[in-house]
Write a structure and sequence with these properties.
Chain lengths: 892, 116
């Protein structure tokens, strides 16, 4: 112990100790010389004799250092210094290797971070590892989703054997008014056990008390989200006890949540939390009684030791009982339990989510593998070129271990550099991802921050990559036959075939890996193109959207109607406007409306059969003209459809065929409120459109006049003959003339709005991610093939010189070099196609309108890979063909 | 055979240094080296330089201590002296060497008759 401490101390006092030693040795020599002089030797003789007796001066120093310090650490530093010098000397090689690793590792970091948000990172709540999401499928084939409030209460009451607690939330967009100014907030309406079950303590004030606001129309309080509190109230503690209005109801601010709690929705930070009973004030009391109104997102904490399967089985029993008791609502319903991270952001995604993440992690892993192979190949090629250097080092006494360590040091240094570069690249990608706004004006919180998990992942991968990439060449070199290498003068004509075999093998695998990446990229890109050319059923081009919510400013229904009528009149008068209309929501937007059930008049619904639900939008008369949706039968709405006239509706094809098969739908009546009415008369049938989901077949959907279905939220949609953004200032100006206090939201073209989460967003993200990875794969493959071909061409200079001296034409030499590339590429592509055919089946369910074995994609990317790699190989081929035979021969 | 000197056995140099310091008291490196050579009757093949590795080793084990002082002709020199634990170690080493020497002596004294 003591010795070790002394050695470590000595290691750090190297310079001082060396000085001491030098002094001591000089003294020694002086004394010895003096003794010798005394014995009668001449001064030179005396000095010489002293030196001889002393032995090697340098050896003595070296022994002294070895004995006192940490020789292994010293030699590591030496290795590092030497490696840095070598890497700097080969700047081109170093740059390429670093670039390859940084890109390979960086893409990994980015995707891992994304996966971290979507799949891995636990919520900052109590027992997050046991937190689950409970969701129901209304029919066997529908996506798992929200639970009705009464069902939630039943599940909660009877599941204490498997869960320690169950809570939930109803997300909603509401207006918060304070001192004459209203904000649009995303609010979670929560049962009173929400915060206590999740173990959240107040950041300020208090949270919701047990039992507070669980009953309808009670609990007029609100807890603010941390960011919103800072934004709107400047983070002032005075806010506690203030009265604000929430959708027109006066409520008291009781507290603020802690900074790290963003709510449990993952993608969005909640602005506020209110007791679920508050929903009653908004005229939404139906959620407390209706088992058809699926509004509640349910969370539950497993008891320790209980598995998800057991919990699901326990809930299924409760579900069966509910189905017997409430056949109309709960028949055919299936309850599911997911680990919370799997059900992000929506339980609907839970079933396909692991596949999506797996595919991306696989792709990214493949990039890393290809990158490592690439660097290994570069190192291998370089190692071969350095064989002579190594032989000399070995000849003058460097041990095999020492050489191995030297080479490993170099590759680990490279890998660490690549790791740092990768972390930087990954973080930049993260920043770009953070900048995406898939939800219009709503505050998206991807929380892409760099965390230690990501970092350790990157660091681990980088180190592993370095060791793997360095090991093979290092082993090879250290096994080199010294005599042979020195004799050959580094030219190597014999014994090379095995080495070539290894390098060629690596290139082939690399090309194959890149091809798989390119196939995936191609499939996703073509999938996006297909999605974009899907017939939406409406025309999104040249439409401007402007959202407003007069209700937030205290507008009543008549005042809202008057405002909207006037705004429409003035908008239509603007130059460049073709038509204008209002709707509650836009197709494929981030919110929409729906009726839990529709009841056709005079059709008896048997208790066992499910009452189908339908999508719903309240629109103004010119809506179908503005969106260019074709009315197939009957008529569109007119100004004659008012609150006082007969209730009317326009249904889509699917609804017409489902409710009134083989009959004329126009003139039929149905209700979206209750089996007994009130009924609306169908006055028209409109062509099916993609309203809620880009991919699913359009479900039943109907439209009602806004005059007969009042909602304060509405979007002004303007069809323009000019680029729609140009008209935005004019329309906003009109609104300011009418009421300067009225805020507008989501002012954007319909084309842009379609890039949102329910539109093309995921396709775009998927396609750009896959595209980026594919591009990376292509780049790596080109660099790899180029590296090997140009290296082997340079090794064959001598041979080429002989060939040319014997009369070979330049074109023949060119063909010789390119031929090697074609062989490598051909083998790699063949292997890659075979592997991709197997792998792409995995992607099938994520693709739209493109078969997983799409021949266009396979042929296209193979051709692209072949062409670009060959192009890169023309450089070494040209160089080889230009070799002057005499120079090449004289080189030796 | 005259110019063929003894190659030092591993570990013997340390013992010699300790014994020298024990017998004579504080000495500088050159003094120790000379002393060992003289005592051995110039029988030992000593690269004087190797003494310094030994000195640092002994110092780190705490068996000897070093101090800068003035040499006979008033020059700055590093003087080494044996410590208490050094003496203990020397006693142990001396016993060990004595035993080896005895055993070797007996083994080498074996004659042909005795082996039968």
């Amino acid at each position: 112990m003591r010795t070790l401490a002394a050695r470590i101390a000595a290691f750090f006092r190297k310079r001082e100790l060396d000085r001491d030693l030098d002094q001591e040795l000089a003294m020694h020599l002086d004394l010895a010389t003096e003794d010798n002089l005394r014995r009668g030797l001449s001064p030179q003789e005396a000095r010489r004799e002293a030196l001889v007796r002393f032995g090697g001066m340098e050896a003595a120093r070296e022994h002294h250092r070895d004995a006192r310090g940490l020789p292994w650490l010293d030699s590591i530093f030496q290795d590092v210094r030497y490696a840095l010098r070598t890497l700097r000397r080969d700047a081109g090689f170093t740059a390429v290797a670093l670039l390859i690793l940084a890109l390979g590792i960086g893409a990994n970091t980015a995707v891992f971070s994304l996966g971290n948000v979507f799949l891995f990172r636990p919520l900052p709540v109590k027992d997050a590892d046991r937190l689950t999401v409970v969701a129901v499928q209304s029919r066997a084939d529908s996506d798992p989703g929200e639970v009705s409030y009464p069902d939630y209460l039943d599940y909660q009451a009877h599941s204490s054997a498997v869960f320690t607690g169950m809570t939930g939330y109803v997300p909603n967009i509401v207006g918060l008014g304070y001192r004459g100014h209203a904000d649009r907030l995303i609010v979670s309406y929560v049962p009173s056990n929400f915060f206590s079950m999740l173990g959240i303590r107040p950041g300020l004030g208090r949270l919701i008390n047990p039992g507070e606001g669980d009953a309808p129309k009670t609990g007029p309080v609100v807890v603010l989200g941390h960011s919103y509190w800072e934004k709107r109230f400047g983070g002032s503690p005075d806010v506690i006890g203030r009265t604000v209005s929430l959708d027109g109801t006066a409520v008291t601010v009781i507290g603020v949540v802690p900074k790290e709690f963003l709510g449990v929705f993952n993608l969005l930070e909640m602005d506020a939390y209110a007791p679920v009973g508050m929903l009653g004030f908004g005229g939404n009391s139906v959620i407390f009684t209706s088992r058809e109104s699926h509004e509640m997102r349910v969370l539950a904490t497993l008891r320790p030791g209980v598995s998800i399967v057991q919990a699901q089985a326990a809930l299924a029993v409760i579900g069966q009982r509910l189905a017997q008791e409430y056949p109309n609502a709960d028949q055919g319903q299936r309850v599911r339990v997911f680990s919370e991270p799997v059900a992000r952001p929506e339980p609907a995604a839970a079933d396909s989510k692991p596949l999506v993440v797996t595919v991306f992690l696989l792709m990214v892993g493949l990039v890393l593998v290809v990158a490592c192979l690439n660097v290994a190949n570069l190192l291998l090629a370089r190692a071969a070129a350095r064989e002579q250097e190594m032989s000399i080092r070995a000849a003058i006494g460097a041990g095999r271990r020492r050489l191995l360590r030297q080479l490993l040091t170099e590759s680990v240094l490279l890998a660490l550099g690549g790791g740092v570069g990768g972390a930087i690249v990954g973080n930049s990608i993260g920043h770009v991802m953070n900048g995406l706004r898939p939800f219009g004006d709503l505050p998206l919180r991807l929380a892409f921050a760099f965390d230690w998990r990501v970092f350790s992942y990157v660091a681990g991968v980088a180190l592993l990559a370095g060791i793997l990439a360095g090991l093979a060449p290092a082993l090879r070199i250290s096994r080199t036959d010294l005599n042979l290498a020195l004799r050959e003068g580094g030219r190597g004509l014999i014994g090379e075939s095995r080495r070539h075999w290894l390098r060629n093998g690596l290139v082939i695998v690399q090309v194959a890996g890149s091809l798989i990446l390119l196939v995936a990229a191609g499939l996703f890109t073509r999938s996006l193109r297909r999605a974009e050319s899907i017939d939406l059923g409406f025309d999104p081009h040249h439409v401007l959207n402007v959202s407003l919510e007069p209700g937030l400013q205290g507008y009543t229904e008549p005042r809202t109607e008057a405002l909207c009528r006037e705004l429409l009149r003035r908008t239509r008068a603007l130059p460049g406007v073709r038509s204008a209309s209002f709707a509650f929501s836009i197709p494929l937007g981030y919110y929409s409306n729906g009726a839990p059930a529709v009841y056709p008049e005079a059709q008896t619904v048997s208790p066992s059969s499910h009452v189908p639900g339908a999508g719903l939008n309240a629109v103004s008369p010119d809506y179908f003209t503005t969106l260019r949706m074709r009315i197939l039968e009957g008529r569109a709405f007119t100004d004659a459809d008012t609150a006082a006239s007969e209730p009317v509706a326009i249904v889509n094809q699917t609804m017409a065929e489902r409710l009134w098969p083989h009959r004329d739908a126009v003139g039929q009546r149905f209700s979206h409120k209750a089996a007994a009415g009130p009924f609306a008369t169908v006055v028209g049938v409109v062509r099916d459109a993609k309203t809620n989901s880009l991919l699913d077949a359009p479900g039943m959907f109907f439209y009602v006049p806004q005059t007969q279905h009042y909602q304060s939220t509405r979007v002004l949609q303007v069809r323009t003959s000019v680029p729609p953004e140009l008209l935005a200032p004019a329309v906003e100006g009109l609104l300011r003339e009418l009421d300067p206090s009225l805020p507008v939201y989501d002012v954007t073209s319909m084309d842009k709005a379609l890039q949102g989460a329910n539109g093309f967003f995921l396709f775009k993200v998927g396609a750009s991610f896959a595209g980026a990875l594919g591009g990376l794969g292509l780049l790596l493959a080109v660099v790899g093939v180029y590296g090997v071909v140009s290296y082997s061409a340079s090794r064959r200079r001598h041979e080429i010189g002989i060939r040319m001296a014997l009369g070979a034409q330049r074109i023949a030499i060119f063909r010789l070099v390119v031929g090697q590339a074609v062989l490598l590429l051909g083998a790699g592509i063949a292997l890659g196609v075979a592997a991709a055919l197997g792998v792409s089946r995995l992607l099938a369910s994520l693709l739209v309108g493109v078969p997983a074995h799409d021949p266009v994609t396979f042929l296209g990317v193979s051709g692209m890979l072949m062409a670009s790699a060959l192009l890169a190989c023309f450089i070494p081929a040209y160089r080889a063909a230009r070799v002057a035979p005499m120079t090449a021969l004289r080189d030796q | 055979m005259a110019n063929q000197k003894l190659d030092l056995l591993q570990g013997t140099l340390d013992v010699m240094v300790l014994q020298t310091l024990n017998a004579i008291g504080p000495l500088h490196g050159y003094g120790i080296a000379r002393r060992i050579e003289q005592v051995s009757g110039d029988q030992v093949l000593l690269n004087q330089g190797t003494i310094y590795a030994s000195l640092v080793r002994l110092q780190q084990r705490g068996w000897i201590a070093a101090e800068w002082g003035a040499s006979d002709n008033n020059r700055k020199a590093k003087f080494y002296s044996i410590t208490r634990s050094g003496r203990k170690q020397l006693a142990a080493d001396a016993a060990h060497w004595q035993r080896i020497s005895d055993v070797m002596g007996r083994v080498l004294a074996m004659t042909g008759e005795e082996t039968q």
